[in-house]
Each structure stands twice: as C-alpha cells, then as structure tokens.
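Spend some time on this chain, tokens included, and walk me through the fold:

. . .
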Amino acid sequence: MKIAHVADLQVKNRDKNLYLSYFNNLKEIVTKTEENKFDAIVIAGDLFEFATPNESERKLIYNFIVDLVKVSTLKEIVIISGNHDLEKYKKKQQKIDAFESDVNNNLPVLGVFTDMIKSINQEFDNKIIYMKDSKVYDSKLPNVKYIGYSLEDGCNPDLSSVDDKNINICVYHGMIKEYVDSVKLPIKNSVYESLDSLEVFPQNSIVMAGDIHQQLKYEGLNGCTFYYSGSTQQHTHNEGYFFKTQKIDDKVSHKVSLTKYLNELQEAEAKAIFCYEFDDNKEYNLEKIQLKDFVKYFTIELTEDCSYTEVFDSLRELFIVLDADSCFAETQNYIKIKSLTKFVKEEHKLFDLINEYSKNNNFNISFEYEKISSGSNIVTNETVKEVVKDVVKSITDEESSDIDEITLSRENIDKLILK
C-alpha cells in the first residue's frame, strides 16, 4: 500500500508569468502518481499562493485535481487547506460573523473546488476527502484512518475514537515548536506559545504536514513521527541557489549555497514527493521521489572588494560551470544580481554575459543595489543629511515649489550614486 504526500504547491501566476512552470510541475505530480501506482495522495495545504486566486490559478488547480481523480489506481485524494488558502477567507468570515450572517455560502476556494468536482459524478465524490473539519476521517484503505487538523475550525480534533492499532495519518498545516527550536527561529514568546507541538498528535501516528518548504522529520516521545514534505518546486529566491563572490588570497571565488532560514548557507534542496509504502505489519518505508525543477531562482552577490574585471571573469566561469552541470531549470530561471551601485554602469554588460547561457530565452535577470556607493566610498548618513538639507533649502527658497516636481541636482545625484 502506497500513500503519497505533497504540500505547498502555492500556485501563482501574477506579475511573473509562471503558468507553464506550474502546469508542468502539477502534470509531473500526476504522472508520478500514475507511474508509482499510489493508492492515496495527501495534499497538506497551500495549493494556492493567494486565497483569492485568479482565473489561470483556479484553472491550474481545478485541472490538477480532476486529473488526479482520473488516475485509475488512486483510491482517494485527501486535501486540507493551508494558511495561504484561507487567509482572506478567514478575514471575510470574521466580518460576516460580526453581522450575524450565514457563513455556509462563503466557503474557502478549495471547499468550492472540491464540492464542484465531487458533484460531477459519484466516482469523483467517492475519491475526494476534503478536511473542512478537524476530526477523524474513514479511508478506503485497510486499517487506515485520517485525522484532520483543520485551520478552518481551530485544529482541535476529538481523538477519543482513535485506536493506535490502525495506521493513523494526521494531516496538518502549520509551524510546530520543534521546528522553531531546531532552526533557532527568532519569534516572540507569545507566538511560540501559540504553536502546536508533537504532543498534540496521537501516539504512534504519522503526521503528513505542510507549511515549511524544507523536507524535515521530527519524532515525538509518544512514538509519533512528523514529516514536512517541503514545497513541490522553488517559489522564491529564498529557496534557490545563492552565490557570493569573495576574494581569497587575491583570487575571486564563489561560495555556492542555498539561502535558508537564519541565512544558513546550504545547497538547494531537491524537491520531491514523499511516498510511504506500508507492508502487512503496518511498517513503512519512506521514499523520496524526485521532481524536476521547472523554475529556479539564483541570487548572485557581488562584494565590494572585487573589481569589475574580477567580477566579470568570475561570473563567466560560474555560468560555464552551471551550464555544464545542467543546473538551470527547463522552463524558467530567475537570476538576481545583488551589488553596490559602483557596478551600475556595467549592468548591461553583465546582463549580456549572463544571457549568453540562456536557452530558449528562459532567463529573467534583475539587479538589486543594496548599498549606495560614491565612487570607491560608501555613502554615510552625513552625506544623506547633506543632500536632504539642500533639498529642503530648495523648497523653502522657491515658494511655488510643488513636492511632485522636486528633483535632485546633478551634484546631489553624484554624491549619492557615482562620481
């Protein structure tokens, strides 16, 4: 018996045209479901990035769920909403409650979707379990019970009927105290105390969770085992590759890493579907079935101790290595260059250099200037105050000055940017 576990699909198609990347990612999940003949798949929240999805985002998720339902070997699809799916719905519901209106006609988008799909025919209805309520749900699979911890009603299911002789699978979306402790995440004590811990889950249960985009495992004292399956593809630069040019013994090198929480430097994590294969004794083996990267994010930080020539040469070397190692995504690559403004005059040359390695024009290159430089010097607060003083004086000297028409003089621009 095989049960798949995914979470944090976070489909979005707004300012960046990511439709094809998400289409391919969702299609691959369906294909892996068919190839591996999963008996069930658990989707542990955050199917959408936004609680009010646009038409293209709804289309992606609707077709994804319908395609899963059509997989003949798949007996059931278990879905729970995440915080991204519910954020605006919960605010709307609070306003409705305040006016004592009927909330039953104001379902979160996933509830509407699943109801719509289930209404198509009886087979679809029988395959989908949407965990609107926190409670125990029956399964078609032998000796399996699902326990939903729904954000829609406070994540507090009645566990009095839970029998640890069954395979009890808890479906959860959220950050737990053990995660905060393990990564030393700095949060307020009040927020920390509001989080759940492994103690809330039944003994010997398996928790299939979403919310954290890393693949993690925690074990409770009561025998429960908690898994974050991570996201199904990179969603932001925080999940992508991080490269930093720095001088070592007068040579420019690259520190290759993935920017994680707390700015830890690690390599990018391969995205995967978690597959739990159970034997007749209810023991299981966990296999991570790797997914392709249809979109990748790269951040390249250029430090101030490198000259432009050194930066240019090192970037060429870096992209030769990345290209040779097939590090780029098939569909889209977002490349962000972080540097001082001393490189601003060379931006077009850096842009052309990087684009030499673009296949099918699938690079999106942006520049981010974190510090303002003046020639070889970093602008100080005193310099900024001096410019502000000049601007204020210009306003007071010209009675007819309009705030919208204020412009910096060439002299002040040079002070703030480049000589």
About this structure: Confidence is low (pLDDT under 50) at residues 91-105, 256-266, 399-405.
